[in-house]
Amino acid sequence: MNRLRPIYMDDDGVPLDDMEASEDRDDADLWFLPGPIEDEPDYLPPGPAPEAKESEVVDAWRAAEAGQAAQLARVAARLGILDERLRRGPAGWRQRLALIEAADLSWLTQDRIGLDRLSLYMGLRVSTATDDAQALYRIGWTVRRLTGGPAPLTLRSGVRDLATFLDRRDRPGQGERFEEAKAPSRVVEMAEREAFEDRVAGWLAIMDQAEDLHAVTRACMGFHLWHVAELSPVDDPLEAAVTAARVAIADLAPSESAPGAIFAPIAMGGGGGFRAIGDPSARLARWLNAMESATFAALRKLEEIEAWAAAAERTMAPLSGKTPPMLRDLFTSWPLVSVQMAEKLTGAHRATVQRNIDWMEVRGLIREVTGQGRYRMWRIVETRATEARSIPVRNDGLSADDLFEVVAARP
Questions:
Q1: CATH 1.10.10.10 spans which residues of the chain?
Q2: Phi/psi at 250 (nearest 5 deg)?
Q3: What is the pLDDT of residues 118-144, one digit of tens each?
Q4: Where is this region: Disordered (predicted)?
Q5: CA-based nearest residue to 292, from 151, 410, 401
Q6: CATH level 2 (architecture), domain 317-378
Q7: Helix, strand, or coil here: 287?
Q8: In which element (H, E) is residue 367 found?
Q9: Which of 377, 396, 378, 379 is nearest to 387 (CA)?
Q10: β-bridge mates for residue 338, sequence order
Q11: Confidence category of residue 160, pLDDT binned at 50, 70, 90
């Protein structure tokens, strides 16, 4: 027996079920009202992606290093050869390589300071009316840091140590004096920000987490994280590049009696190593390629200097006095030399310097490269034996590995 459902009535005698159905029909007619939230499409732009943790960043570079282990070993071996050659050579070799590397870095930063202008500025503090004073100051700082000065990272590196390396302090007796009149306005602006020490502390913290990485990999990581930490303007990679060049040789054994390589050449191999495109693996691959080419170029230049110095010593043996050997050492230390530079750096009389330079030019040891009346500059002339040993830009049958074997076998 079916039981009848009771019908409930309101006070006016209208069934309640009929009222609910009528309300549902009325709601269906309200087409202009928004629908349920879960049925609407999401037109909002995506929010910012969560930042990667520091441990994840370092792990990505560890994986990149593991994938480039073979090439990293070759680069480390070549840096060791360069360090050994510099230990056995005069101090002028390091200065010469630093001047060439700084001039190449100036093209990376759009300053475009040539070797002639850079040599005049570093030797005589001479600049022309068209020279950019800020650009010369920046590249001069680059040369000083590539030839010496405080280390950017030590076993107990702190914020003040890196600030000293960057000349971001104005304290007597602590690093070089930071002169706002000479420094670029962008560098002054970055130095005056209150959060600079916090940014440096953050960059140093992540570099400390990567202590187990090879120095070359660590330098590459530090370069690409430099602008993430906002330690320099985005369009100014100079400070990051110089810091990375000094960090890359941290694994080389230090020796106070016979200092070797102070920096790892990078810009000599082209600007591809500084491109900030791709994942850590792609960036490290470009970095290693550039450093390998730059190290070969540096070794080739040392071969040229050594061969020229031996030939110059034999040719200049009949000359007497102190000026000829001093000029010979000067040409091995500077890529380009003028009479004014030689007069100041050797202390000899200008007429004596000019007479010896003319004698060397007639004998084919040096040649003029400027072709102008004032500030004429000379450079060494490569010997045929040196050119035959050079890394070929032509197809002469000598590969990079062959040159490595030749250099490694030299006493």
A1: 317-378
A2: -65, -25
A3: 998 999 887 765 667 888 888 999 999
A4: 1-25
A5: 401
A6: Orthogonal Bundle (1.10)
A7: helix
A8: strand 366-368
A9: 396
A10: 377
A11: low
